[in-house]
Amino acid sequence: MRTKIIFLFALVFALNFNTSFAQGCEDDAAPTGASSGVPSTSSSTFFGYFQPEYDTHFTDPSTNTFKFKRARFGVRGRVNRSFSYYAMIETSDFIASDGNVYLMDAFVTFDKYEWTKFSVGSFKQPFGLEVTTACHSLTTIDRSIVSDQLVAPQRDLGLMMLGGTSKTKFRYSVALMNGTGLGLKDNNTKKDIIGRASYKVFDFMTLGGSFRYGYPNTKDKDRTTLGGEVVLSYNAFKLQGEYIYDEGDYNRAAEGGCGSVPLELGDKRAGAYVMATYDLNEKFQPVFKYEYFDQDLDIKKIGYQEMMTIGANYFINKNTRIQVNYQNKIETGLSVDNDALLMQLQVKF
């Protein structure tokens, strides 16, 4: 019954509008070609961004360090009217578990017809608003704990059907993926099916949902993940939030998002965040974020964590910004000195 429901959900997606979707680490590409939206020329673009960062952790004893959050280079373009390509490497020693440069995204997209497109290769799992947001466009320096822990692996190999852009009311993506992450062969004969859809209900409100059903280790133990999202905006004010629920088996070898340390999870786990921003002007944007994560819903208080992030983004120009975040970690029991101050400079090209 569950398989039939997922199939119908995917079929409904396929019958709706379609243009493009940012499945790599970039925003939607600028449209090319005629008014029909069909690409008409070949192209090639070299791009990338650096995120040097200074972190202070108010532990006992305290620690501080300079590092690169991300240091990425990529190329994207077209070979003809029917096919485009995208590839990106990560060079930061602080992201890869072994400290080596590695290939993050590499996919080919058939996009001759605007109503439906297909990508094959390695790319982000199409799950959740925060994970699918371009890494250089994140409002806070770190993604929420629930996004890093439950949408893992965040990147994988597979085939995706997608459509819609940030300019359309509706957008969707549905992918068939290995479920093991980058650089690893599939460990069973079954594949994960993952999808996300969002719809702009009103000018000030966008709603979305995500799902994942797969077999992270063996073909006998499954995993189900569900997510909901909302974005509200009014003039300079914006509020967004997500809730993610996950149950079943999971791959303990899969890394958390962007170098985060994966946690031991119970059979059922969930978390959420809500984030508010206000653009005081075109350069200065204060931000407040509250989040919680429960790594085992069956065990009370153990494995439960909350965090508040207070900070600001300062945009020097469209390609350069400074982010400052203070992370206040809230304990339900004995208080622990573990707050942190993160400061990051970003330059993209």
UniProtKB/TrEMBL annotation:
Entry keyword set: Signal
Signal sequence segment: 1-22
Domain of life from the UniProt record: Bacteria
Name used for this protein in its record: Porin
Species: Gramella jeungdoensis
Gene3D superfamilies with a match to the protein in the record: Porin
Lineage of producing organism: Bacteria, Pseudomonadati, Bacteroidota, Flavobacteriia, Flavobacteriales
